[in-house]
Description:
The chain has helices at residues 2-12, 49-62, 65-74, 76-86, 89-94, 124-131, and strands spanning 20-21, 40-42, 106-110, 116-120, 135-137. By secondary structure, the chain is an alpha+beta fold.
Amino acid sequence: TRLEAASYLALRGMPFHTIARMTPGRRPREYDESHWDLGVRLVGHRFTFEDYRVYQDRLRGALTRGKWRAAMAAGGIVWRIALEVLGEEAIDVALEGPSEEDDLFGQLWRTTRGDDWFDDVLSERELELISGVYRVYNRT
């Protein structure tokens, strides 16, 4: 079945999509990503375990269930990091299909008949947070 195929991919960190028909009049849109930032460090900053704990807390807090799904469906290193931080419950969430959250960021597919289909995806800022990207400014 399709669910078994998605489960097979999700358990192995392989990318997949579980698209759903869009509700008429509803469109995916970007939302405020200010909470998707680990902050700024100066050149030479020595990272500590506390920095790593803050990263995990920020990531756990920022990943809504819809974003869990998108991270798990992305596969690869993003899948592995999300699995490490969120736990195996995230795999089950990934199999639920696209989120029904109001603040969506996703990919829209339109068929030749004009039907709209949607799947959750991660924005560049979300991928940066998952990957642990810090902004580093040097004074020149």
